[in-house]
Amino acid sequence: MRRVVITGLGTLNALGLDVESSWSRMLRGENGVGPIRRFDTAEQSVKFAATIEWDPLKHFSTPDLRKLDPFTMWALVATDEALRDAGIDSAAASAEVRERWGCILGTGIGGITGIEEQHHGLIEKGPRRVSPHFVPKIMANAVSGQVAIRHGLLGTCFTTSSACASAGHAMGMAWRAIQFDDADIVVTGGSESATTPMSLAGFSNMKALSSRNDDPATASRPFDKDRDGFVMGEGCGVLVFEELEHARKRGAKIYAEVKGFGSTDDGHHITAPEESGRGPARAMREALRHAKVDPKDVQ
Asked: What is the pLDDT of residues 104-130, one digit of tens each?
């Protein structure tokens, strides 16, 4: 079976708009959680999140903003960074070569920003004012499709959507595409831009979110006995997966090898995990089995 390595990294997140800045802030123990300033939260019970502060016009034209939802724009910027990091110039590669390059990205909710914007326009101004770009802008597969169009990726291209596991499943499918000789390079990862008034209210009303409005920086504490919910976040992480010998042949920098992947379900509840943890344990065992790694050897 063909071996898969990571040769490129790209990101936009609440800590920074690229790998270098976000990684350095992470090492300093910083976090990007703070008050939401993008919209009025006066009537919201939760008023904070990990949001991205950026100027899209530094990367896109005004017409682009009408065609692209933030989750897609972030993926395009992060992919540019990841491919540069990997030393891959798609513009210089032939179509025949790019037939072996794919794109598999994940998103849990997709273009909800655009949905809320256009719904507001529909109610206020009527159906004729709904943008003709609406559907291709908000569909989940826009993220993979637009990345593939921008870089001429002619291999497999689709989006995985499985809530919080979306990017994990995308990376698993990318790993298998290269393993099974369907591709030599796959752009993979995930992108999410769901910090909107409706999303915030929905997650808050189902009692899923932390309500530490007085101290948002300490609100994210997933393994703490005083945990009171999760913190909404947004951003994008993109990796370049590549077949090992293909990467070696072109002298690529290799960050790591992807050796195993496991995916299971506990068939229990739409939001609550089954309490024994058997589902995640089986997924971990599957990943170790694929990797041919003994659990005793994992530090």
From this structure: 999 999 999 999 999 999 999 999 999
The C-alpha atoms of residue 116 and residue 133 are separated, in whole angstroms, by 14
Supply the pTM of this predicted model: 0.96
Q: Strands, E, within the chain: which ranges? A: 4-13, 33-35, 48-50, 101-106, 157-160, 185-192, 235-243, 256-258
Residues 218 and 285 in one domain: no
Let me know whether 142 and 282 are in one domain: no
Handedness of CA 216, 221, 227, 228 (dihedral sign): positive
CB 264 within 8 A of CB 283: yes
Q: Are 133 and 187 in contact (CB under 8 A)?
A: no
Domain limits at 289? 267-299
Same domain for 68 and 188, yes or no, is yes
Q: How many domains does the chain have?
A: 2
CATH number of domain containing 47: 3.40.47.10
Asked if residue 102 and residue 26 are part of one domain, the reply reads yes
Pairing of strands 101-106, 4-13: unpaired
pLDDT tens digit sequence for 246-269: 999 999 999 999 999 999 999 999
Query: Is the domain of 133 the same as that of 271?
Result: no
d(CA 174, CA 185): 9
Enumerate the β-bridge partners of residue 235: 13, 192
Contact 230, 222 (CB under 8 A): yes
Q: Does 35 share its domain with 155? A: yes
Q: Token digits for 37?
A: 């300033």
Angstrom distance (rounded) from CA 250 to CA 244:
10
